[in-house]
Amino acid sequence: MRYYVQKLGFYAVALWAALTINFALPRLMPGDPVDILLSKLSARGPVTPEARQSIALLLGTETDQSLISQYFSYLGNVFTGDLGLSVTYFPQTVTDTIAQTLPWTIALMGIATVISFVVGVGLGQLAGWKRGSFLDNLIPVATMFQAVPYFWLALVLLYLFSSVFAVFPTNGGYDVYGTTPGLNWPFLRSAVYYGTLPALTIVLSSVAGWMLGMRNMMVSTLSEDYITTAEAKGLRPRRIMTTYAARNAVLPSLSGFAITLGFVVAGSIVAEQVFSYPGIGQTLLSAVQNNDYALMQGIFLVITVSVLGANLAVDLLYSLIDPRTRARA
Amino acid sequence: MNQFSPRTSRRALVAAMAGAALALSACSGGGDGSGGAGGPQPAGGDGAITVFNGSTGTVAENFNPFSPTALQPTLGVVHEALFYYNLAAGGDPEPLLGESFSWNEDGTQLTVVTREGVTWSDGEPFTANDVAFTFNLLWGTPELNTSGIEAEAEATSDTEVVFTFPTTSFVQEAQILGNQAIVPEHVWADKADPATDINTDPVGTGAYTVDTFSPQSYSLAANPDYWGGAPEVQNVRYIALATADAASSALLAGEVDWMSAFFPGFQEVLADEPDLSWINTPGATTTIHTCSNAELGCEGPQSDPAVRQAIYQALDREQLNQLAFAGIAQMPSTTMLLPDRDEEWIADPEATLAPETPDVEAARATLEAAGWTEGADGIYERDGERLSMTIQVVSGYSDFISAIDAMTQQLAAAGIELSSTQLAYNEWNANQQNGTFQLSMDSIGFTPSTDPYYTYFPKYTTANTLPVGESVGSNNFSRYSNPVVDEAVATAAGTEDQAVKAEQYAVIQEQIATDLPYIPVVIGSTLTEFSTARATGWPTDEDTYAFPASWKSWDNGIVLKNLELVAPE
């Protein structure tokens, strides 16, 4: 029990530290949202000198609040779920903006990450079990895909499969012409169709890491004494591979997986740019471009919580899978 | 229990993988079915077109015409103004909801006759009361009043509205007549907070009404009862794309009918596509903004007018056009107006038109006359100060960046050293606002009407600037301050007499041609691409009945109602 309390305490402190940095960082950036909105407006049409005052009033940025009191009201608001108004998407609230975009990212990146992990670990396990088989040759190929910068790989695949062969759509998250978002079959089918190519590029570019790691762990686990013992007992090779070798070999990959899951939200920016995918990565980018403090803080909060949450979950899970981590000297 | 949990979790993973694989195969199958042989296609042949107006990521619903973040078709397409000012061709304002207007002698009263027989999209009649309500709401709400004026509007009958101003206000004309959407009183009187209301399902007088909205895309439907006759195109869909690359491939794939974006090699690419055409409508002068006023805290050699003149003389604009602007830029004018469109306002068209070729000798002579001497490395010096300046540019603005590369060499030939720094938009913008820059690549243009007042007042007057370190709010970045200009602008603002205005503008033009707080580079292109596969009647070089850019408010509504459908084959 004490173990869990300690863990939770640690995560609470980490969360507080992250929230504080989250508060400070956007304020260290140059520029001010009123000026940025003004410049954007003046690029599209006339802006009168008086507009500055009225926009400051409108956005509510004209406050005399000290930094300290801003900090405490920020902390208070975070815990009540009130993340403020977005300047970029004014007058939409940050919570609404995140709620609109987060599901797209989680569905795309989450599923792609899980597929990549499962495929990579599965193949790595087989490659380690049957060293020297054709699967070993797959590793350099997969590594090549990982070595190519992701945006380049994505652009090439997009060009090939959307422009040259026109198998997949060039952009978007679903067929905006023929379907209405919601729980209906045409929409879901089109969302999956539109998500396939982005997901494919993500899997292609990340599967090698899982494969390589898992294969090498398999190889070293297979030389352990207990594997020899298991073989000597005459267990079926399949059982030795899965229950004896793979279960132990997968542990490092699993903790890596947790960290990756946490970065699902942050890691989707490039993919969403290339495929014009309507996720939170693009929202984060426009928040940064518009000095939209509230929106940036909101998205950072989501990232922070997801990284910490994923780590906490794996920490707890790990102690179930591997009793050694619970043991105290 | 421990012994079993990993096993179940692994099975769950395997099941997830199998499910995902199934989903993948199902979707590629589904894609073949729904997309047909040519991949996904927008619904064609049913009178619908698709517009990309530059919005990226998700779209926040906001059809409030008072809001600075309103979706672009709110202005001009859904809600209309009283008149339309054509920035592509110039000329008199064209009547929309207003039919005619007149000023009293001293410019304190503006009377507008409004159109009869117009109905709002909910069926209620439109009257002058709606116009008066709109402006009183605007001027009575500090959060909305971006012009800062205190005026009053009163409907004197169902078709006449009178605006009364505390001072001479001729210059408010274009803002009031052409840049304010009229809203219905019977809807907006009940809005609790008109500043932040997102006005879902807007009631307007425009040719289109909002049909469907989702954060990825929204569509407008033709208003069958539109006073000017229902438009032919039944459905206009606006989509969001992340980048210009995505936009150009969507255009080539036939998924977008109208967009405004520059992409490299567009001439060759579009020449191969029979359905696609493009138009270039220069609307703004690309400039080097200089922090010109040492008295207000500007630092660096560019605060010497001789240096600014030398830069102006040493630029090889023809080379810049070829290297950086795809050969479609035009030669600018030191008046910062557009030489073709604004002919009537330019006092001395020949002298103020920037030369295509550089005059390095003249540039050197200008510098030497101001006391600069050539140093050992070929760069001029004065009192130990090297003639070396930093120009800031937004990273990713590729045409500006290649222009700067070329200018660095061109100016080096005249003994001026230029170094560049690429910044994120925010930082670049903050530097301009606060005057913490030496030179900056930007542009000047897109005013409410073609009256030069809207260029000279914000960019060149003392009233619109502040010392370095204080934000000037998108106005006089250069910190330029010249009493002669200030007085001429004030005189021009106080009259409706075109001849008097032109006289005053000539005075300004003479001053700024030698002071050059903003150094004209070229007149940049504004490129718009159309597809004629589904609709025709787009603006052409011969008939610029509206500014064609797909991101331009007001003009969008004019273009859309002018389109004709192509009969499905």
Tally of discrete structural domains of chain A: 2
Rounded to an integer in angstroms, the radius of gyration calculated over CA atoms of chain A is 24 Å
N/C terminus separation of chain A = 16 Å
Give the % helix of chain A: over 70%
CATH-defined architecture of the largest domain in chain B: Roll
**CATH fold annotation of the largest domain in chain B:** Dipeptide-binding Protein, domain 3
Structural class of chain B: alpha+beta
Unreliable spans of chain B are: 1-45
Q: Helix count of chain B, per DSSP?
A: 16
How many structurally independent domains of chain B? Answer: 3
Main pleated-sheet profile of chain A: none
The CATH architecture of the largest domain in chain A is: Orthogonal Bundle
What overall form of chain A do the CA principal axes indicate? globular
CATH level 1 name of the largest domain in chain B: Alpha Beta
Task: Please provide a written account of the structure.
The complex is a heterodimer of chains A (about 325) and B (about 575). The mean pLDDT of chain A is about 80. The longest helix of chain A has about 40 residues, at about 185-220. Helix content of chain A is about 75%, strand content about 0%. Chain A folds into two domains: about 1-80, no CATH class; about 95-330, Orthogonal Bundle (MetI-like fold). Chain A is globular and about 85 Å long. Chain A is an all-alpha fold and about 325 residues long. Chain B has about 575 residues and is α+β, with helices and mostly antiparallel strands. Chain B has three domains: about 10-60 and about 205-280 and about 525-565, D-Maltodextrin-Binding Protein, domain 2 (3-Layer(aba) Sandwich), CATH 3.40.190; about 85-190, Alpha-Beta Complex (Dipeptide-binding Protein, domain 1); about 285-525, Dipeptide-binding Protein, Domain 3 (Dipeptide-binding Protein, domain 3). Chain B is globular, with a radius of gyration of 27 Å. Chain B starts with a helix and ends with a strand. Chains A and B meet through helix 2, helix 3, helix 5, helix 7 and helix 8 of A and helix 1, helix 5 and helix 12 of B.
